[in-house]
Amino acid sequence: MSGVRPGTAASRGGNGSRGVTGSRGTRNGSRPAGEERALTSVAAGDRFRGGEPEHTPRLWHVTLSVSGARAPLGEVRRALEQLAHDHPFLLTSRYADDHAEIRYWEEARDLHDAAAVALRLWGEHRQTAGLPPWEIVGLEVIDRATYHQRIAAGYGPAPATPVGVHPF
Fold it and tell me: What confidence score (pLDDT) does residue 10 get?
């Protein structure tokens, strides 16, 4: 999900990650075997000029809606509580016997990554949390600024909405 940070690509795969000896008896074709690479530092601000780097994670507010065949309310509540335990950034869940809504914050590079994680959440935790076999019927992913604009304008969940798992 996260992008590769500058300067880390060579350490994560290809011939460089396993110390393969290249031509002329050097490791990775650049240093003699056993010779360590000197570490250098980068002063703050030297690496990225002109604002946030493209791959810096941002916070996204996610609302995931699921629906399906009726299930006992006690089992739905227990499953959502387990999901909240397994997924520590879960803010609130509302549920009924045939649908649920989950709200949480996701840290991701961009909207596409946040949405991809959200679309996998229900299926990946279905077994471990004992979630009902419901399907995803809605997804909203908005950035932090938009979330706060909506709250300020009186839209969205009230700031006093209790965190946790609650019936509709």
Answer: 41
